[in-house]
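Let's practice the habit of predicting before peeking. Look at the sequence and jot down your guess about where helices and strands might fall. Then scroll down.
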Amino acid sequence: MALKISWLNHTVADAGLVTVYWFTEEAGGAEGAVPGVLGSSRMSRTRVQVTGTPQEVAAWNAAALACLGELAPAIAELERVEERVRRWRRRLVSRRWAEATYGRAEAAFLDRVEPVAAAYRPVREAVERRIAEQEAQRIEAGRRAYREQERRREEARARFEEWEWRQAAADRPLPGGSTPRELAARDETPQAWPAELRETVGDIDAWWQRVHASVRNELAREEAVRKVAAAITETAAALEAAGRPGISAVKDRPYEVRHGWWVHFTWSGLPDATWLSTPPDMPTGHLNAGQWHHNAYHLSRILLMRRPSGAYGLAVVTSERIANGLATRYGWREWEIEPFAQALVPDQLAHHTTHTYEVAVRLRITDHADPAVFVPYAEAVACRATAAFRAAAAGQARPDPEDTA
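Done guessing? Here is the structure:
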């Protein structure tokens, strides 16, 4: 590391006469002595990355000190003249004299400085060549590192695509038209597996067990969704038959009015959801830094609403920042019964890239979760949701004082 030191006088700076390089670390951190020669208020100091052998650095620092030792008296003399004529330049009657006086001093300064700068020029050019060489080496090293990183990323991407192809084998038709997943759902096992499938999946028995596990998970999720949807439909029918007792007009925030009942949920104590993570055998080397997120939608409350048409649906208050974050706009997000029931039991796992939040990979959770964990989880979610809606049907729905009128 070195300091590029220049004197801030436009004439001298344009000519490039007073620019020296001082290696502070090699000089034991003695930075102040060199800039002090030229006056700290008139100096430009820029750190540059450059190294040299101890002998080179010692010679370069010695040349810099010799150069500055000659320049210091000349610089001091020019600055004295500049200070003396500064106030006379603002007066019309003395401006020509002041400019002529400073011009003579500047010419004398350049005559005195040019031989010194010429003597230092070979050293300065040698340092600047070294700076350019080492900068080129750093750029090339960065390019090599980038190419290596991209090579490894492509290899990791190829491994992921092979893994993804193996995962998709369960949904590719076999001779006869059915897919392995459809056979597993019917609890059928072929007498022989195609050679291509064996080559793709490797251990056919372990793979077939995973397909069966995926089917169990999917059936458990479908059953949970069916129970929740049925509970919502039954609740709506019971409330309608009872004359809609306790229905409220919700018109606080957002401004648009919705009519219905707040249904409150309790999700604490659900079975552990550590299965909502990366599949253990999935290659992830091609992914940028980020986080995995599932799509479970567990609210503390939702509005079971009756539309003007008489149809029932669900709604939740949403918000977004507007006016560069200075205000908040509220609105309603409305759900049909079936999609809301599906949102309660997650079926997807997505990798979101840090900062951009771009979704790089989406996986089907039921293909990778352990049924011993996923099935009880889906059943517990369905149990909590159906209990909340049936409580509403039994006349226990609670209007929210803050949001009703």
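How did you do? The two ends are 71 Å apart (CA to CA).
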